[in-house]
Amino acid sequence: MTQAVNKKDSIYFQLLRLLVFSAIAAGLVFWVMNYSMEYVINCYYDHTGYERQQDENYIRKLQQYIERNQLTSRDAESLDSWVKKQRILTIRIYKDGIQVFDSEYPQQELWEEEIAAGDYEWENYYSVKFVDGEAQVYIWGLYAYQFYNYALIIEIMFSFILFLILVLLGIRRKMNYILKLSEEIELLEGGSLDYKITVKGKDELTALAEGLDNMRLSFRSLIKREADIVRENQKVITEMSHDIRTPVTSIMLYTEIIKTGKYKDEVHLKEYIEKIDKKAHRMKQLTEHLYEYTLVTGTTEMVLEEPEYYEVLFYDLFSETCSYLRQKGFTIEFSMEWVDKKLRICTDYIWRIMDNISSNIIKYADPQKAVEICSVCNGNKIGFSFRNAVKQLEETVESTHVGIPSVKNMMEKMNGICEVRQDKEYFYIAIIFPEAASYSEEDHKRNVTKEYMESE
After folding, report:
1. Which part of the chain is the HAMP domain (predicted)?
2. pLDDT band of 161, cuts 50, 70, 90
3. Are 162 and 265 contained in the same domain?
């Protein structure tokens, strides 16, 4: 039986855990890459003189712009226009030690405030010639920002790709399992019922695989049972055909004698007619047994009757059976315990079963010893048993070998069992039914599958 899937093991939560894990892994990789790239850029920026090279480059451009436009150190509007075009620069201009321009405050006339130069060690000043004389220019640029931007784009892309790869790898494992199940289902469709379905994990796919494998076992069990039934039917029909051929041959022989008048007198004629009558009755008995066996093993649907108490079902039946066997000269030891439980049976099948058992007792039982009839009660299993001594036969008794297989088939259709034990001295047969309140069709199907798996 397929087990229920634990909520935390479901595919939904597995996917959620996969997304969270992938996001955390991608985030950690992004953090490590960001720290590493920043370190590399800073090292490159600090140790290659890149900043000074860029400063000098922009100072040359500024000098060319001043010369081309004949600017003075106080042409704030023109200077501000040039700085904005560069986008990444900040400059301050000092003339005669007084700040005359600051690109961060281009509209202010700073020379009137007479702000002195800071003259800090980390600030680099460059001499630039204006129309009104030479001035000192401090320049600062965001030269590394483009590297940081490029690095950030690479980090985001790599982290996102890593996230996708981890998610796809996790999904791929499930997809591979689904594809494997699909291939195995195709094998089952092709008739390879011995191929075991792969069962792994604890999620919904696992439950599906378990269900498919249980279905495979059920189908294989049914096919095996059908094959056994067909084989048994062929065996019985072959034996019955041989048994029927014998009396037919005898009838034809005696008929030919009568037709040709090869009998000695009327006594022999009467003897031949009696033999023909006896063989005809034998044929009738054989055909009835064959019909009964075919009826039981066929596809005709058998419907169980409503639950009824054990005593109500079998009291009259045992009374008639015991009376019949006593009339045939048998001694009966009857010890039945009428338990207060209900059974579901098919009355027609029960009468056939009792008729088969009675016929076997009359044929094979020793009338010098008692026939024991007892009740069988084991938990929720209820029924009865017959036990008789086997008589020593002086001559071979004709048998169709159909009785016991028919009883077993009828009991199986009624969801019961037939137990048979025999040795040289005693024959024992038990007819056992499940209690009605404790049995269902699903139980029967599970039991059949379980028994088959155990037998394997």
Report:
1. 172-224
2. very high
3. no
